[in-house]
Input
Amino acid sequence: MEKFQKFLEEKLGPVMSKLGSNRYLLAVRDGVIAALPLIIVGSFFLIIANPPLPEDWGVYQFLKANAATILLPYRMTMYIMSLYAVFGMGNSLAKSYGLDGLSGGVMSVMAFLLTITPVNVSADANAGIAGFVLPMASLGSGGLFVGMIVTFIAINIFRLTQNSKFHITMPEQVPPSVSRSFEALTPTLLVMLLIGSITYYLGFNWNGAITAIITPLVAATDTLPGVLLVCFLTCFFWFFGIHGVSIVGSIARPPWLALLEQNANAAASGVAGTALPAIGAEPFYQWFIWIGGSGCTIGLAILLVTVCKSKYLKDLGRIGIAPAIFNINEPLIFGAPVVLNLTLAIPFVVTPMICATIAWVATSLGMVNRVVITAPWTLPGPIGAYLATGGDWRAAVLCCVLIAVSIACYFPFVKMYDRQFLDQEQPEKAAE
Output
């Protein structure tokens, strides 16, 4: 056992730590997180347009009659999320190379928009509005992979021009903001010529090509084996003290957003909550698997407070229970600790996989609505589950059931761990 733990610490730990600090994964994470407030706020308009109220109520009828107008904020936020995320990704990646973040963000947005071919519409075909328009579907989650690729291309061109001195340099007397703008002229021209030529002169369909490539990935993400794999990998990374959600989430978040957008669009079209196309979008993990944080540690927090007799573990539980209610579990992960602790590693990995299976079966059987919005992740579990499923009280009940499952899964291991601490504390008390 000691050799195995030494192997994990000395061999696998550094590799996974390096992966977790990869600048490209961090840029994708930062970009999506930057757009998260818009995604959360915009998605709430879906609930307003499709209220969980009896159909014979006047309020319900009024909201449904004005649903098209109510959904406009949603269409200008979550519906075009990639446009905002690309700016955040470009800003983050540019800064990681020591470049100007603002120039990197603007350059990335320009590159992203150059992958989309405007459509010329006539006045008769478009309610009296004529001219070139951008197809908004290309700006949604379906365009996120394209945005990632062209962002990486644009920022690397920016980096190469800076390192090779192939850019305009202004005198020191020029204000820094003006100087940075001129320094970005050369890479901007190169990015524009490269991406624009590929799109408009070679006729390359960026979205079509990427969609063909990622469709199997998105489909695999929305399966029970795919969900279980994400659960296992996330907890596996956390076992080494590496933020599993950051690593796995950076890779899985684009498919998650694509699945969530499918549900949101279907809900906006009036599809019932139990008949939405996808199950495994990110809110499914947040409210039915990561209750209390990664590893579904809400059960661990409750047991530390209510069952443990060890002074250390009970005090840790008192400190960690409040953050855990709001899905913050770092005090428990590093305080128990869960990191490199083989006693707690088993329930930490197994519990979310059991909860995922129960939630998947319940959702696929239509016992609860499928997730349709991104609720703020710091909400207590049942409240977040209710909101994320468009106001389905059954989702809140399911979340409570899964909390009970978490308690049951952690119980024997916490009792064992508690005895270990008691054995250590009793000699100390005797010595006093």
